[in-house]
Design a protein that fits this description.
Layout: E1 9-14, E2 22-29, E3 39-47, E4 52-57, E5 61-69, E6 71-76, E7 79-84, E8 88-91, E9 96-102, E10 107-115
Antiparallel strand pairs: 1-2, 2-3, 3-10, 4-9, 5-8, 5-10, 6-7, 6-9
Pfam family, one: Cupin_2
GO molecular function: metal ion binding
InterPro entries: Cupin_2, GPI/OXD, RmlC-like_jellyroll, RmlC_Cupin_sf
Length: 118
Amino acid sequence: MIRKRDEKIYHKKKSPFEGEGEILVRSLLNGPDEMYQAGRVFAHTSVYPGSSIGYHIHEKESETYYILSGVAKYNDNGTIKIVTAGDVTFTGVGEGHGIEAVGNEPVELIALILLDKR
């Protein structure tokens, strides 16, 4: 399968989990059916300056972010760290996280949510 740029689903929405501002989500794979029921999100997400994805806990799934560009404050289970291009974050089952774009450019990231099949 090849999904061309203009075939992706683009969804600009209010930041989730009581975050501030808006985000843009580009689905790279369209949900569990395209992920052999092993995951539910594989997306390129833009978190605009001053916007955030609010802190939330993952039940029965994990989430990984690969930061492509920008600077963000990342809440890793209550510990705030700065993340930049090339950094990878991982939130395991039962753990929580949130991210806030800081600076003048959006934070561009790849998000992968995998279901806990154990």
